[in-house]
Specification:
Length: about 375
C-alpha cells in the first residue's frame, strides 16, 4: 500500500472512530444521568479510546514521512521553490496586519524557480509536479549586486599581444591593452496587477499569480533590454545592439554552418563563445534539418534534444526577429548587476481598493548591464 493510500485509510478510520466514540460517550452520559450502570458500554468506550490513540499515532508518523517525501506538494531541504512560494512563505506575508507590505526574494532562488503551485490549503495528498523552468537571457550571464545607482567599469577597447620568445639580455616586447571607463545607470522594470482580497487568504492561487503574471512579466522585459536596449532614457544598452556584425558568410551554408563560423569569428579575435541566442523560428529550422535520406540530423523526434549547438547552450527568444541571432562570450564579455532583486509589494490602501475588497500586487526590480568587451559578441542583422 502506498503512503498516500495508507494515510487516507487511517484518516477515514480515525474519523469513523471519533464519530462512534462521540456517539457512545453521549449515550453513556445520558445513562449515567439516568442512574444506569452499564459495564459493557464502558469497556467499549475504553476500547475505542485505545484504538483512537493508536490511529492518531500512526497518522502522525505517516504525516511526518509524507513531509519528508514531499507527498504534500512541496520540495523540502535542497529543493527548488518558485517565486510565488517564497512570497507566501515569507514572514512579511504571514504577518500581514497592515494594508501594505513588501517581500524581496533572492535572485538565486528565483533563477531556479520551478513554477509550481505547491500544496493546497486542504489536507489532500498530491504528488509534486515539477514544471519546467522557463529559460531567460540572464541565465547565460554572470550575475552580481551593486549598492549604487550608477556603475562605472572598464570596457575593453583593443588588445595588441606582442608576447614573444626573448633571448638573454634582449629587450622585452610591449603589449598594449586599451580600456575606457564607462558609466551606466541602474534601470527599473515594474508592473502590477489587481486581484480580489480573498487571494491573500488563498496561498496556492497567490503563488500562481506571482509566478505566471508578475515575475515572468519582469523577465520578458528584462530579456528585451539585455538584448536590444538602445541605452537611451530608461533603457539598458543591449548586447545585440553593440555586437560586431558577422562577416564570415559562405554561399550554401546552413544555419548550423553559419553559427559555427560565428563561433570561429570570436575565436579569431581571442574570444571564446559560451552561448547562442536566436529566434524560435530559426531554432525550429535547425531542429528540422534533414539528411539526404530524410532523417533528422539534429533532433531525436521522440525525445527531442537539449538546447545546445556546437557545444554551446541555446536560448530561443522572441525578442530577436527571424534571421537575427547572437553568439557571444557571455561569461566574460558582460555581467548583469541587481540593485534591487525582484520585489513584491501588496497594498489595498491606494485608489478604491479598500472599498472594493481588492488588492494591488506590484512587482519590480532594478538592474544594470555592464558590457566589458563589445568584441565578445557577434550578431547577424538581416538587411
Amino acid at each position: 500500500m502506498s503512503e498516500n493510500t495508507e494515510l487516507k485509510a487511517i484518516q477515514e478510520a480515525l474519523a469513523s472512530i471519533e464519530t462512534s466514540l462521540g456517539t457512545k460517550l453521549e449515550t453513556r452520559l445520558n445513562e449515567i444521568k439516568a442512574g444506569l450502570n452499564v459495564p459493557d458500554q464502558d469497556a467499549k468506550i475504553k476500547q475505542l479510546e485505545a484504538e483512537h490513540a493508536q490511529l492518531k499515532a500512526d497518522l502522525q508518523g505517516l504525516e511526518a514521512k509524507a513531509n519528508r517525501l514531499d507527498l504534500t506538494g512541496g520540495l523540502r531541504a535542497g529543493g527548488r521553490k518558485s517565486s510565488g512560494e517564497l512570497f507566501v512563505e515569507s514572514q512579511e506575508f504571514k504577518g500581514r496586519a497592515s494594508g501594505r507590505f513588501s517581500v524581496t526574494m533572492e535572485q538565486k532562488a528565483l533563477t531556479s524557480a520551478a513554477g509550481s503551485i505547491g500544496s493546497t490549503l486542504q489536507p489532500q495528498i498530491l504528488a509534486f509536479q515539477d514544471a519546467p523552468t522557463e529559460p531567460h537571457i540572464r541565465d547565460l550571464l554572470p550575475s552580481g549586486q551593486t549598492t549604487s545607482s550608477v556603475l562605472k567599469f572598464p570596457q575593453r577597447k583593443s588588445l595588441t599581444n606582442n608576447a614573444a620568445m626573448v633571448a638573454e639580455g634582449a629587450a622585452k616586447p610591449q603589449s598594449d591593452f586599451t580600456f575606457e571607463m564607462v558609466t551606466t545607470e541602474v534601470k527599473k522594470i515594474a508592473h502590477y496587477i489587481k486581484a480580489s482580497d480573498e487571494i491573500l487568504a488563498d496561498a496556492p492561487a497567490l503563488r500562481s499569480y506571482i509566478d505566471a503574471q508578475l515575475i515572468d512579466g519582469l523577465r520578458e522585459v528584462e530579456d528585451a533590454q539585455i538584448l536590444k536596449g538602445d541605452g537611451t532614457g530608461q533603457n539598458l544598452l543591449g548586447l545585440y545592439t553593440v555586437a560586431t556584425a558577422f562577416n564570415r558568410a559562405q554561399a550554401g551554408d546552413t544555419l548550423l554552418d553559419t553559427l559555427l563560423r560565428a563561433k570561429t569569428q570570436l575565436r579569431l579575435v581571442n574570444r571564446t563563445a559560451t552561448g547562442i541566442v536566436l529566434n524560435p523560428e530559426d531554432w525550429e529550422t535547425i531542429q528540422l534539418l534533414k539528411g539526404s535520406d530524410s532523417h533528422y540530423v539534429w533532433a531525436s523526434v521522440p525525445d527531442g534534444n537539449a538546447q545546445r549547438v556546437w557545444a554551446l547552450p541555446v536560448r530561443d527568444s522572441t525578442r530577436l526577429a527571424k534571421g537575427e541571432w547572437l553568439v557571444g562570450d557571455f561569461r566574460r564579455g558582460a555581467q548583469l548587476f541587481d540593485r534591487e532583486q525582484s520585489n513584491i509589494t501588496v497594498a489595498n490602501q491606494n485608489e478604491d481598493d479598500f472599498i472594493k475588497n481588492m488588492v494591488t500586487i506590484l512587482a519590480e526590480e532594478r538592474i544594470c548591464l555592464a558590457i566589458f568587451d563589445r568584441l565578445a559578441f557577434v550578431k547577424n542583422a538581416p538587411a
